[in-house]
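Tokens in:
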């Protein structure tokens, strides 16, 4: 399968997912999870990237981070090499631990940033591991609520300030916000390819008909000058068409951030 160019983030903020090679577990016990956090902290100090959210699952890791002195590709490669050395030595194996090509998406505005943070913190809830995000010990959510041993790993201020500049109030609002799981689909282990899969003819037909009912062609939606009208159409499509915001963005030629905000 050909490789597709990564979407560059003008903000330098990315949602990243690292997977175990061949779906291999990255963490077999708590010692492994601690080592990953220690590796993230060490590389953060060396490369000076900012980490806003994380979640360690058994065979994949979600990160919300901002590039520092190095590109996100170089930083993640360093993380992978360092952890692989530990993992292979501990389990008497050789070879890669992380899948070579990590997955990423650009995060360009506050609304999308909030949604990605919500998604990362709710990953264990989505997987049925816990009932509430606060119950999972291997994500950054607890560090936001009550800073602990890994508090220096996470830059809490940016996310909290999006709710309030009063920290106590911001934490309360973050807790309430996180109870509402975002309906948007982000990169995850269930998404098979870097490039979105082709939409079915039936789905495209539904989108095409819905747009025509509004008096437009598919190719015209991205050029609508009246933002209120455009967003009205996008909301109707999101509410009535069985597909993701990412797929709508692709077929309409519109930024996924615009689709999400509509």
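Residues out:
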């Amino acid at each position: 399968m050909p490789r597709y160019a990564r979407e560059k983030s003008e903000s330098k903020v990315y949602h990243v997912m690292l997977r175990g090679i061949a779906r291999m577990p990255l963490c077999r016990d708590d010692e492994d999870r601690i080592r990953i956090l220690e590796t993230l902290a060490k590389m953060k100090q060396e490369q000076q990237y900012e980490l806003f959210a994380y979640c360690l699952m058994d065979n994949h890791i979600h990160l919300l981070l901002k590039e520092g002195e190095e590109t996100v590709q170089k930083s993640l490669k360093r993380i992978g090499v360092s952890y692989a050395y530990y993992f292979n030595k501990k389990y008497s194996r050789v070879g890669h631990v992380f899948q070579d090509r990590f997955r990423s998406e650009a995060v360009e505005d506050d609304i999308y940033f909030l949604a990605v943070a919500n998604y990362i913190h709710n990953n264990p809830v989505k997987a049925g591991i816990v009932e509430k995000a606060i119950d999972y010990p291997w994500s950054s959510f607890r560090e936001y609520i009550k800073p602990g041993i890994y508090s220096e790993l996470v830059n809490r201020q940016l996310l909290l300030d999006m709710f309030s500049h009063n920290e106590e109030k911001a934490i309360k609002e973050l807790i309430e916000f996180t109870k509402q799981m975002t309906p948007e689909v982000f990169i995850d282990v269930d998404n098979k390819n870097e490039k979105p899969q082709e939409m079915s003819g039936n789905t495209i037909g539904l989108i095409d008909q819905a747009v025509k009912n509004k008096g437009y062609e598919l190719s015209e939606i991205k050029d609508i000058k009246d933002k209120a009208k455009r967003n009205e159409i996008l909301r109707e499509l999101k509410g009535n068409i069985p597909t993701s915001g990412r797929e709508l963005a692709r077929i309409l030629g519109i930024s996924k951030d615009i689709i999400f905000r509509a």
